[in-house]
Amino acid sequence: MILTVTPNPCVDRIYSAPDFRSGRIHRVNKPLVRAGGKGINVARTLRLLGGDVHATGFLGGLNGEYIRGELRKEGIGDFFLTVQEETRNKIAITDTRTGEETEINEPGPAIAEEQEKFLRHLDSLVRRFGYSYVAFCGSLPRGASIDFYFRCVELVQSLGVKCAVDTSGEALKHSIEAKPWIVKPNRTELSEMVKSEIESYEDIMKQCHAILDSGVGNIMVTLGSRGAVYINGDGAWCAKPPRVPVEHSLGSGDAFLSGLLRGFEKNLDPPDALKFAMATAALHIQGALPDEYAKKNISELETNMTVCKLCVGGGE
Ligand SMILES: Nc1ncnc2c1ncn2[C@@H]1O[C@H](COP(=O)(O)OP(=O)(O)OP(=O)(O)O)[C@@H](O)[C@H]1O
Ligand SMILES: [Mg+2]
Predict the structure, then answer these.
(1) Mutation test residue for ligand 1: of 198, 222, 231, 284, the one with most atoms within 8 Å of CB
(2) Is 224 near ligand 1, meaning CB less than 6 Å away?
(3) Which of 189, 213, 215, 311 has a C-alpha 20 to 30 A away from that of 32?
(4) Spans in the chain with pLDDT lower than 70
(5) Over the stretch 242-289, which tens digit does the pLDDT of each residue have?
(6) CATH superfamily entry for domain 186-316
(7) Please, is 178 exposed, middle or buried when counting C-beta atoms within 10 Å of its C-beta (0-12, 13-18, 19+)?
(8) Helix 270-285 vs helix 252-265: angle between axes, to the nearest 10 degrees?
(9) What residue ranges of the chain are covered by domains with CATH 3.40.1190.20?
(10) CATH for 1-180?
(11) Is the CB of 258 under 6 A from ligand 1?
């Protein structure tokens, strides 16, 4: 079983409007509304892949109640702590003519003393359920100390459970000091972290080896339509995604992480887990329906991709 942590969840409200422009009135159809935030997205895809999953973080107000209802419907164990302030909305407006997306992000509740309560809660969850992995996903809420993920990872790993971290900026930098089992930056997040523009496989290998030397167990760098590179102490592998029609690429990294963790839960070795993750992301990108996350569709996508071992220096 896997636990996902979403410290700053949201209700996603997705509007479609042709010729969207600021300063105009747009009459739109009902928005697509769903529970959101990276850890919740990861939990949802893990369920679609047949995994057992719990989700935690902070929820408040009517939006919090809405998310709890959605988690129940989707069979995700709800272990969120309740906070006073209202959980945020995240509004996305897609211009159906140009495909351009405008986002309006509310800040969400401020977390301060709730952090200590959360650490005690996390400790008891991990002791009670003995998860195979705990995934920390997304940005930190207002008021959270920058070492929040660091403290969480240190606590969970001291209990013998492996942690995955998918975040950015300072939160990523600090969490790495707790030596998580795996981190999943995308190209931009890795470039920001090492303060150098990452382009080639050679750049990735060089920077990731320095991170591995600091004690992180595994690094998965996702490169959008260019694929992904997986590096650990045993070697490095790269894979290119299958060609699929792109319905939406937002959240593809979350789907990818779900596939990766589910793959490891099923004891796949790194190259096979990489393929499984990439097939899962490809299904997400195509806008696959829940029953399309079936084993036969994943296997079909996997046969259309190759995994190559990378040599020191970044050559295939
Ligand atoms: N256009 C695409 N075509 C095929 N596969 C894609 C495409 N974009 C992304 N992917 C797949 O999804 C994976 C993750 O993509 P990406 O690196 O964009 O993640 P991300 O930036 O973390 O996304 P997000 O944070 O929005 O969830 C890629 O490694 C690749 O397998
Ligand atoms: Mg991402």
Answers:
(1) 222
(2) yes
(3) 189
(4) 312-314
(5) 999 988 788 999 999 999 999 999 999 999 999 999 999 999 999 999
(6) Ribokinase (3.40.1190.20)
(7) buried
(8) 140
(9) 1-180, 186-316
(10) 3.40.1190.20
(11) no
